[in-house]
Amino acid sequence: MSGFEGSYLGANDKISPRAIMECKICWTPYDPAEGDDTRQVLPGTPFIALPDDWSCPNCDAPKEQFLVSEDPGSDAMQQAAWLAARTEALVTDFTEVWHAKMRDVPIVNKLLHVQAVGFDLYQGRPLGVLLSPWFMNLILLPAEGEDWSDLQPGAKEHITFASGQYEFIHNKRDMTGGYKACSLFSPMNDFRSQAQAVEVARAVLVALFQEEHRAETDRSAEIRAAREAELEAVTEAEAEEDAEAAPIIEAPTRRQVLTAGLSGEQG
Questions:
Q1: What's the chain look like in SS3?
Q2: What is the CA radius of gyration of the chain?
Q3: pLDDT, tens digit, for every residue of 86-108?
Q4: pLDDT for 222-249, tens place per residue?
Q5: Do residues 169 and 134 lie in contact, with contact meaning Cβ atoms separated by under 8 Å?
Q6: What is the four-CA torsion angle of 59, 62, 67, 73, rounded to 10 degrees?
Q7: Count of beta carbons in the 10 Å neighbourhood of residue 160
Q8: Per-residue pLDDT averaged across 183-212, rounded?
Q9: CA 20, CA 29: separation in Å to the nearest integer?
Q10: Which residues of 214-233 are buried (b: 16+ CB within 10 A; e: fewer)?
């Protein structure tokens, strides 16, 4: 059969059997789940399997004039759906921990809730930041088809990114399975809103892949001491403020963002 002009330059192999097509002349859709009663095309017939002489049931435009409207079966959409399912399991796992075990623990920040931020594939594995009321962790999940069920909780592993080397601790959860976590912040008392925590998490993911921060990140002992000193200075400054005034906490500096993961604490 001939190709179609509207999408991918006529490359039929770029669309899946589930692709919903749309006539670019009159915008009439062809949904394979419904078929085409006017031409006796049965439901379940993919667009790429339609006869060569099939045309738009509304304006008679040829197949070549159809665009891809949406393609639930495309590789990108399948990958996005898989990634969403993995992060949803992670969030569900830790939301359950929050409700079952952590709500009454004094160190928690009740202004925050569990949220997955910025998860995307890194070398085939989901990588992102998990926020909770008691920690912010960089999380690495196994690739599709990869089995991390044999990870030993508490075991440490150093993983290198463009900005330097970071310590990850292995762990397992019921729904998530095996995963690797790098502690960024714990506890989370410095954050005054979920939006602020999300902003810092996104900054972490950007800085993680910036080589100009490698020298700072590699000086782990010095950086850890500097970070502790900065946090202590902030605490002292807050103590001097009027107790009636709402404290203003600035977002962590780039150094704090980049080096938070050097601490050994885990959520």
A1: CCCCCCCHHHCHHHCCCCCEEEECCCCCEECCCCCEHHHCECCCCCHHHCCCCCECCCCCCEHHHEEEEECCCCHHHHHHHHHHHHHHHHHHHHHHHHHHHHCCCCCCCCCCCCEEEEEEEECCEEEEEEECCCCEEEEECCCCCCCCCCCCCCCEEEEEECCEEEEEEEEEECCCEEEEEEEEECCCCCCCCHHHHHHHHHHHHHHCCCHHHHHHHHCHHHHHHHHHHHHHHHHHHHHCCCCCCCCCCCCCCHHHHHHHHHCCCCC
A2: 25
A3: 999 999 999 999 999 999 999 99
A4: 545 555 555 565 555 555 554 444 444 4
A5: no
A6: 110
A7: 10
A8: 94
A9: 7
A10: bebbeebeebeebbeeeeee
| Token duo for residue 212 | 């100009």
